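User: I'm writing a short methods note and want a consistent example. For Flavanone 4-reductase, I'll paste the sequence; you return only the structure tokens, no commentary, since I'll be parsing the reply automatically.
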Amino acid sequence: MGSESQIVCVTGASGFIGSWLVMRLLEHGYTVRATVRDPDNQKKVKHLLDLPKANTHLTLWKADLSEEGSFDAAINGCCGVFHVATPMDFESKDPENEVIKPTINGVLDIMKACIKAKTVKKLIFTSSAGTVNVEEHQGTVYDESNWSDLEFVYAKKMTGWMYFVSKTLAEQAAWKFAKENNLDLITIIPTLVIGPFLMPSMPPSLITGLSPLTGNEAHYGIIRQGQFVHLDDLCMSHIFLFENPKAEGRYICSSHEATIVELAKMLREKYPDYNIPTDFKDADENLGNVVFNSKKLLDLGFQFKYSLEDMFVGAVETCHEKGLIAPPTKIENAINGDTIACIETPTSVKC
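Assistant:
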């Protein structure tokens, strides 16, 4: 599938994953229709408009997951759609109506738009590791056949539970619709996405990933036994699977695993001026890793390019450049209860 002059749509284009994907698609020669909730909000879209080839190969389209039919115009005439947008409001007072239903209805609305267009050859849906391994007893290796236990999620209602439910139900609904309507669907399941980025604010996944460096203890449990993928590897896997005619089904995209102990050790060695902990609750050097197996993706010919260190150095350096992480002395003061908050922590993000 050659890229020259082909038109594709990227939803959630101003976000962490979406904006980097737009950049890579433009580099590959695609003409990109980028959907955002407010094309006139320069603060949210300037990083897209500043991309190379944006003036000739990029257009912004207004669309919202909560508005039925709002993606129809952007998708009409496209040969492919990359559905990245998703509501992420972990503190919603009404998660059923503000997170879960919009996520499910949003993907179905986009799929209906693909059918109406009659030009869409393939839909790539960015799913989540939260659809795979959220269950009471953790396994040691997970693959594309695994699904999260929603009964456990509803009973436990852990941090982010509505996100796990929304992504799981949305992906399952997408598979049902795709089979009933003969739509070529690929779902990509990334683990925690780390790396340099384009968006002006702190990506939610980096609030978690960089928590040992910033002292954000509320997120330690999420990466106790972590799995990670570089943002660029993830976006390149989207393009790889879109262009590969043999691609089918679900694909885990995860290149590295590390416990929080291993991660903190690496960060201490790289950034010794930060007060990075050496001890963590329920985690020591004997803690084993939980693996998300990317064998299916690798067997198709995809290759990961980045190391774990590459991911985190890229993320930290970008945060420094954008002023999103305070200098070491201010972080230490914040941890000790003084001065400022060390990191921007949005409670509600919609790409």
